[in-house]
Amino acid sequence: MDTAGQDQLVGRTLDGRYLVESRIARGGMATVYLAVDTRLEREVALKVMHPHLADDDSFVARFVREARSAARLSHPNVVQVFDQGADGDLLYLAMEHLPGRTLRGALTERGVLTPREALTVTESVLDALSAAHRAGIVHRDVKPENVILTDEGRVKVADFGLARAFTGGGTTTGALIGTVAYLSPELVSRGIADARSDVYAAGIMLFEMLTGRQPFVGDVPMQVAYQHVHEDVPPPSSLVPALPQILDDLVLHAVARDPDLRPADAGEWLTEVRQVRRSLSPELLDARPALPRPVSAPSGAAPWATSAPSGGSPTLHHRATEVVASGARAGAAGQGPGGYQPTQTLPELNGLRQLRDRGNREPGADGGGPDDRVDFAELDELARRRRRRGWWLAGIILLLAAALGTAAWWAVKGPGSQAEVPRLIGLSVPEANTRLAAVQLNGDAQPPEYSETVPKDQIDRTDPDAGQSQVKGGSVKYWVSLGTAVRTVPQVVGKTLPDAKAALAKANLAIGDTTQTVQSDTVPKGSVVTSQPAPGATVKANDPVALVVSSGPPPVDVPNVVNQDQQAAVDALAALGLKADTGQQEFSDQVPEGAVISQDPPEGKQLGKGQTVQLVISKGPELVQVPNVISLQFNKARSQLAALGFQVSRTDLAGGFFGTVRFQLPLPGQMVAKGSTVRLTVV
Length: 683
What we know:
Distance between the termini: 140 Å
CATH class of the largest domain: Mainly Alpha
Shape: elongated
Oligomer: single chain
Number of domains: 6
CATH topology of the largest domain: Transferase(Phosphotransferase), domain 1
CATH superfamily of the largest domain: Transferase(Phosphotransferase) domain 1
CATH architecture of the largest domain: Orthogonal Bundle
Strand order of the largest sheet: 1-2-3-4-6-5
Largest sheet: 6 strands, antiparallel
Structural class: alpha+beta
């Protein structure tokens, strides 16, 4: 841990929350501190950006966007981002604090890992990357420095998305060389990165863990970048011969120069890694090569491959080593540990090793005989062959130097020359076009957009960002600010709640609190009574608008209208805001025709205004036509009348001796109330 006693942040509380306890490390982009989150009472790793980066508005905007993307990832192999904020001119990230060391530290200490260790680390890294790829996030800076091996034995990947955030500023040669060793060809040549670029970087890391060195090294970043674009990564067994062909195939699939020939994403390559691990024997998985020794560059490598990168981590350049497992020497009987056919070492190394071994044995030792003695003529012939190869190697070096010179011309003066995108944010369009023309770039105006920070008619943002490189003659997209986005609250009073919400959404306004407790005589139930702010008010885009919704008019007590005339009853209900339904009528002997017989609901119940009271209207008594019973015998006449509901009275003349009806009242054919009495005169 870097104590850095003079660091002014140590002992300070950032943003009123993070108490900085000590400095952990310092890099080209930020300084990392151990801090305590005083609000949640936990230790965090606080990454504080260097002030010169915080002054770059473009960097800050992208940094915030990428930090939010990283915070969306929740995975056991991803260093969790807890918080992002600023304290004055200090921009910071609060992250999970993980005691341990980086994979770079482990490689520096160990040199090379066993296949089991290398595949275990790779699986964890790919597990984290596959989660990011599913979320649409590309890491862009996969390297051993961003892989943390915790003291608890876990593997964590750090700085998701931050590599892209850092591209807004300049990059020095020393800072780039630690990353360029893992850059995919398409990222070098076209600046394009997708999930397959992360797979390429992870493949380079697996190569380095298995062999103890990076496949391409050089004195300057351009040398390494050139090799990534124009040369194939050699198989790991070209450096460690005991490694089986299946590990060569696994690595070479991930580091194919053509992205279409690689696994589509980390999840796809993770499946292959697990299959390869299951197929290897325990002896081969746990075989540990001896610490490699430096040698000249392998065949096919660039002439600068034996130099360590300036300012970078130590890189091991070694000759192939043998792995001894279960008493069997790798390469014996044509097979390596686990039964796989190893890739052969370089012929030169094999020949030197055989002559060296024969020269170090006594005659007859280990079952040998006199023929095992050194043949000095053979040594002379081998030396002559080596000198001839030296001339060929010198020619190859000259050709490579010429190729590098051509590449340098192409990149600096020729069609591949690039210009740095100038800072345009805050400029007018004419000023921006003038600055672009000064560096041989063109402006590409995009549809204007609202901005909360940039005034109207000034450049709001660009793509690429300021400080990035663009091919001369190419275009830089820019967006002009429309100023702060303002909206007018639409007329929503009287609209139903769904219609009001649709109107607010169309106006790019948010829905605020909605209450439905207000009674209204004028606004129907479920419709908006008022809004806050009121219709016509000017607000910012996406500001919330609160709605008050009607619960309907207040209820009224139903009056008693029974026995009232129909029209009088209807008028009495209408005066209270109630409706009357008079469609039902019945006969009644007690209630006069046209008056109310009954009502529903009855008196005293409550109804909302506009609701209906059912009324039953009297048709008066029911009328029946009196039949003609004259000339009938009294008993028969009485039965007929009784059947129709009439009462019957009898008056006899002359004693009623014959029993015949001679007269009736009411007269036949008259309409009388049902149940009325018919008087019969009998003779």
